[in-house]
């Protein structure tokens, strides 16, 4: 599904990704962990197509297409979804209207027939239940005045509505209390199929108690330095990131 | 043009002055004021960003009789609320012929201003020229000297109008008209009405000039919402002087929406005449191409416990220019004043320009006043967020622009008008 090979990227003059490689197949959940400043969020931004980042070398192939050639909206329409670490507030734009437009443009791109107003509302209702988000919230402007937990829940709701092939959850656990964490993770788990895949970016292990990864990668100084199964996350939790840093320094 | 206007004035003087000898001094004084001041040039501080050379050199006709209506009226169907009482003013002359008299009650009087003057209407004679003084502005002076038609709208005491009033002000001449429109409005105490005022040029590509004066008095506890929509096309020029006096506990909501015009200048002034008066000034402007839209507003607090609230938002595209100048006066008696002002601008292109200036003059010491202005681009994070969900750049901008404008449009008391404006804003982005 996704193949990232030897990716180098920089913001302004600072190189942040330094030879990042990763392969993701359908049905897989990959966790990317790492200390602050290791380049995790940059990776998410580069995948989504944020223009502040310049890819200097390497390639990203998504479903056979050169992702780096695509605009952010084309990537979204191809099936990439980024759950933002800091979801943006957009006063005056209702969630309903925004999702209607997003869905309509994605369906047009894929050559699918447009949903009727009734079908759209039914879909909203179904997905709202799935991620336990209230109508009260979806009637409001996008993220305006939302609490941290509400913002993250809204991200997962949008993910449910847009049904992506690959979702990238960028620090989705940050700023969440344990109840919100459970709801958000529950939503992600319910959306999991053998066809789609997720990349879960996190600093802490606790999210992985709820979203169980198939692979755990440790990112440090712009690339993956260690990969393993879900037990690697527990080991990291126990030994801390210094353990990885020492290992690298030793080798 | 100036000399031609003055010659016309002399020629028509007999006709003009015959409307009522009581107005002799008013008319002549105004003509003199215009003769002395002429069209403003760049040395006039308040007009320093505007050029009227084109107008001065123009050979626009000055209509002294009503023209025939011959233009397409489809826009009216799209815009005018079904329940509205509709009147037209064409080249300054009221067309009340098709006014549905059944909709009018005794409490709502709509008269030809010229006729009201001839009939010695006491309200008209006492108010005319007091809310927009000829000496305040050379265009106001010109209008005061030369207007012939116009309308007088009179809402009587305790009357709540269930139907809004819709005024179409149409510049309609295949030669291009230099029109002087005048509206005198009186809301008596405890009355209530919504007015929509739509300014268009029936011949979109033919240069035209409209010089409009609106005088409005809101008596005690009256509530008036006035929505003005300007879309006359890039070939047109328009100067609009609006003067509103608000008395105790009366509430004005004034919404100025300027969608297109080669040169638009709005002087919108409200005076809080008595305690507990309240005024809201809202505006949305969207110059593009080489258009210039200039809003000068005044909130004049003369008595204590009055509130004024102002929000003007603009979007500037192409080589367009927007000017905003907002004055707040808090006079020495106006203790416990609340006066707020905000001006926001979004630049859509490299060549667009904004000039914004707040001016506060505060002579009382126990007041709350604030002002702020911002000029910037669309928020890049918001645009990226929307695109990351699959919206094209254009759709993202449309959505954000509508949300931006809605903060002003939401105060408009008609769904139909709001939807019309929403479509117009979208089409402006579509044209980019």
Q: Main sheet of chain A?
A: 6 strands, mixed
How many individual β-strands of chain A?
Answer: 12
Strand content of chain A: 25-35%
Backbone CA Rg of chain A = 18 Å
Secondary-structure element order of chain A, as H and E? EEEHEEHEEHHHEHEHEEEHH
Shape of chain B: globular
Q: What share of the residues of chain B lie within helices? A: 10-25%
Multimerization state: heterodimer
Q: Main sheet of chain A: which strands, in order across?
A: 6-9-10-3-11-12
Number of helices of chain A: 9
* Count of β-strands of chain B: 19
Unreliable stretches of chain B: none
**Share of helical residues of chain A:** 25-40%
Largest interface (CB within 8 Å) is between:
A-B, 31 and 21 residues
Number of helices of chain B: 10
Q: Describe the biggest sheet of chain B?
A: 10 strands, mixed
Strand fraction of chain B equals: 35-45%
Distance between the termini of chain A: 32 Å
Mean of residue pLDDT of chain B?
A: 91
Task: Give the topology string of chain B: H per helix, E per strand.
Answer: HHHHEEEHHHEEEEEEEEEEEEEEEEHHH
Description:
The complex is a heterodimer of chains A (251) and B (432). Chain A is α/β, with parallel strands linked by helices and 251 residues long. Chain A has helices spanning 40-48, 72-78, 95-110, 117-130, 135-138, 148-162, 178-191, 231-239, 241-250; strands spanning 2-11, 14-24, 29-33, 53-62, 65-66, 80-83, 90-94, 141-142, 166-170, 197-202, 215-220, 223-228. Chain A contains nine helices and twelve strands. In chain A, the strands form three sheets. Chain A has a six-stranded mixed beta sheet, sandwiched between helices. A four-stranded antiparallel beta sheet of chain A has the order 2-1-4-5. In chain A, β9, α7 and β10 form a beta-alpha-beta unit. The model of chain A has no long low-confidence stretch (mean pLDDT 91). Chain B has ten helices and 19 strands. Chain B has helices spanning 2-18, 24-37, 53-57, 74-79, 113-118, 122-127, 138-146, 380-387, 393-409, 415-430; strands at 85-90, 93-95, 108-112, 151-155, 165-171, 178-187, 192-201, 208-218, 223-231, 236-246, 251-260, 263-272, 278-285, 292-301, 307-316, 321-330, 337-347, 353-362, 367-376. The longest helix of chain B is centred in the first third of the chain and has 17 residues, at 2-18. Chain B starts with a helix and ends with a helix. The A-B interface holds A 48-51, 71-73, 75-77, 82, 84, 87-88, 90-93, 97-99, 101-103, 105-106, 109, 141-142, 158, 162 and B 379, 381-382, 384-393, 395, 399-400, 402-404, 406-407.
């Amino acid at each position: 599904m996704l193949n990232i090979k030897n990716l180098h990227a920089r913001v302004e003059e600072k190189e942040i990704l330094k030879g990042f490689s990763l392969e993701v197949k359908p049905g897989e959940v990959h966790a990317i962990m790492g200390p602050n400043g290791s380049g995790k969020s940059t990776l998410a931004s580069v995948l989504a197509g944020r223009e502040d980042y310049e890819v200097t070398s390497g390639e990203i192939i998504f479903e056979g297409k050169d992702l780096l050639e695509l605009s952010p909206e084309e990537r979204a329409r191809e099936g990439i979804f980024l759950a933002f670490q800091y979801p943006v507030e957009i006063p005056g734009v209702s969630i309903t209207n925004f999702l209607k437009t997003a869905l309509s443009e994605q369906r047009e791109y894929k050559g699918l027939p447009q949903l009727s107003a009734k079908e759209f509302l039914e879909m909203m209702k179904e997905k709202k239940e799935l991620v336990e988000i209230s109508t009260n919230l979806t009637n409001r402007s996008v993220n305006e005045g939302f609490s941290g937990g509400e913002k993250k829940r809204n991200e997962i709701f949008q993910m449910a509505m847009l049904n992506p092939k690959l979702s990238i959850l960028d620090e989705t656990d940050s700023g969440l209390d344990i109840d919100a964490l459970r709801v958000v993770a529950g939503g992600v788990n319910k959306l999991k199929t053998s066809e789609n895949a997720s990349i879960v970016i996190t600093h802490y292990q606790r999210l992985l108690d709820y979203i169980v990864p198939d692979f755990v990668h440790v990112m440090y100084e712009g690339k993956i330095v260690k990969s393993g199964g879900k037990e690697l996350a527990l080991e990291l939790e126990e030994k801390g990131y210094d353990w990885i840093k020492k290992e690298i320094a030793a080798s | 043009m100036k000399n031609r206007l003055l010659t016309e004035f002399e020629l028509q003087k007999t006709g003009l002055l015959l409307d009522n000898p009581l107005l002799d001094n008013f008319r002549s004084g105004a003509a003199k004021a215009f003769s002395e001041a002429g069209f403003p040039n760049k040395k006039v501080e308040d007009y320093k960003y505007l050029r009227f050379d084109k107008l001065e050199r123009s050979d626009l006709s000055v209509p002294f009789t009503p023209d025939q209506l011959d233009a397409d009226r489809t826009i009216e169907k799209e815009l005018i609320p079904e329940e509205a009482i509709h009147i037209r003013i064409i080249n300054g002359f009221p067309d009340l012929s098709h006014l549905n008299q059944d909709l009018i009650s005794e409490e709502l009087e709509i008269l030809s201003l010229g006729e009201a003057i001839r009939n010695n209407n006491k309200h008209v004679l006492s108010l005319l020229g007091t809310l927009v003084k000829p000496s305040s502005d050379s265009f106001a002076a010109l209008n005061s000297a030369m207007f012939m038609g116009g309308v007088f709208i009179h809402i009587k005491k305790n009357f709540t109008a269930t139907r809004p009033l819709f005024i179409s002000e149409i510049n309609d001449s295949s030669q291009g008209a230099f029109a002087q429109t005048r509206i005198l409005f009186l809301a008596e105490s405890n009355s209530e009405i919504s007015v929509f005022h739509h300014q268009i040029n029936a011949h979109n590509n033919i240069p035209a000039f409209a010089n409009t004066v609106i005088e409005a008095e809101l008596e005690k506890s009256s509530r008036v919402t006035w929505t003005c929509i300007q879309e006359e096309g890039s070939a047109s020029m328009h100067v609009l002087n609006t003067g509103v006096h608000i008395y105790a506990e009366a509430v004005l909501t004034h919404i100025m929406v300027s969608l297109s015009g080669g040169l638009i200048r709005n002087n919108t002034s409200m005076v809080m005449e008595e305690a507990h008066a309240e005024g809201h000034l809202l505006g949305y402007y969207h110059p593009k191409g080489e258009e210039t839209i200039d809003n000068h507003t005044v909130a004049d607090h003369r008595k204590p416990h009055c509130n004024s609230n102002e929000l003007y938002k603009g979007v500037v595209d192409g080589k367009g220019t927007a000017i905003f100048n907002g004055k707040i006066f808090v006079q020495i008696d106006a203790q416990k004043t609340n006066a707020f002002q905000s001006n926001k601008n979004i630049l859509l292109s490299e060549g667009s320009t904004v000039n914004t200036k707040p001016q506060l003059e505060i002579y009382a010491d126990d007041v709350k006043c604030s002002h702020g202005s911002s000029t910037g681009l669309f928020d890049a994070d918001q645009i990226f967020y929307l695109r990351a969900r699959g919206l094209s750049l254009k759709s993202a901008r449309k959505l954000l622009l509508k949300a931006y404008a809605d903060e002003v449009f939401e105060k408009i008391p008609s769904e139909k008008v709001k939807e019309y404006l929403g479509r117009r804003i979208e089409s402006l982005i579509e044209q980019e």
